[in-house]
Amino acid sequence: MFSTNPFTELAASIGAEAMQIYVILMAVAVIAGVIIDVVHKKSAAYFFENAKKAEKSAKRTVSSGEKMSLAVSTVTNEVLTSSEFANPARRLSHLMTMYGFIVFVISTVALIFGSDAGIWPMLWHLGALSLAVGGGWFFFIIRVDVSSEGKKWYELSLRGDLFIVSLLVMSVFALLWSFSGAGLSGLSLVFFVLFIAAATTLFTTVIWSKFAHMFFKPAAAYQKKITKADGSQENLPDVGEMSDPAIHARYPDIPEYMGTNPPNMGLGIKREKPTHF
Amino acid sequence: MPTFVYMTRCDGCGHCVDICPSDIMHIDPTLRRAYNIEPNMCWECYSCVKACPHHAIDVRGYADFAPLGHSVRVIRDEEKGVIAWRIKSRNGETDLNLLAPITTKPWGEHIPQLSSVAAPTKEQRDSQLLYNEPKYIRMDDGGLHTLESNGLELKEGVYY
Asked: Where are the beta strands (DSSP E) in chain A?
């Protein structure tokens, strides 16, 4: 079931070229959407302005080697493991959605453009499954409207839910289409139409949806690391270690009230999830 | 002046919405990020600023004591049990770091178990004093505490 190439029969009926043209069109739509998004929202201009501001209040200069290692750690932490999320459930669902999407897209391209299927059909199905489970978990349970605002899952906001709904519908109907024989008749055709409609919506609405976050989020995370390294810290204070003698000398209240080696006080208000809206 | 949210930092977790005493921090239904729905009603209590795990919320100070370009930012580190402030003037000459304890014991472990304490007697109920008042203001171990009984004296001026 997982190892059949869903595009074999499709190629026979609509032709491999049609599929390839569709994939290229979607890629063009994403690139154009991201460029328009960046220009329209002025996000790149904002980042550069912010970076300049941070540079002004920098306490030290960050060498290019350090910048390189910060970029690498941004990729290994924020990008590859979504370390920015404070909520572990959200982080896990994001990882499932993200890797599911990447594997799904790459294997789609490999199946449509490549000649040998190999392991790709398996990856295509697993990617879609991971996308459906991670995206569904987020959409039905974690999403702030449902978890905190008490709305029903079907009370959608068009722009707010465009990205997640089209992702979810795409992955679910891709799987259903494949499991129903991957043909173009009867129920299969219905699933196929929904799959393609969702995919088209996903890739052509980049400017209105959250799609572009995969490009600017790493940039924001990298900039945050740079401000920490150069000492400007976005004007945030230094907390330091409470067992540090320099801290004791500077702030005598710390050893007086908390002792010279205070324990970890544990989570305070973060012991409870923020669901009391 | 009211709070505002740095959109590139906020992840829409909702801690600010939970803690705001005026209920004016909300999650935007489209962007799914926090924002102040009614800046006029914000009294700059800094609750949301301290509760934000990503330090995504900032406050603009009133122009009379903090001209534009200044910065007052805070990190409330609950695990270390301290609060740190950094105050910068707009010409950058003042760059003040402050640090103070906010707890001396781990959070939530030393809550008084009032349900297991004996109920007040009829006499205590009829008295003018509040529940546990003699004990809490230490009147039950020999009269009211005064500067004199504590070996202190009133000094002139402001002192700490």
From this structure: none
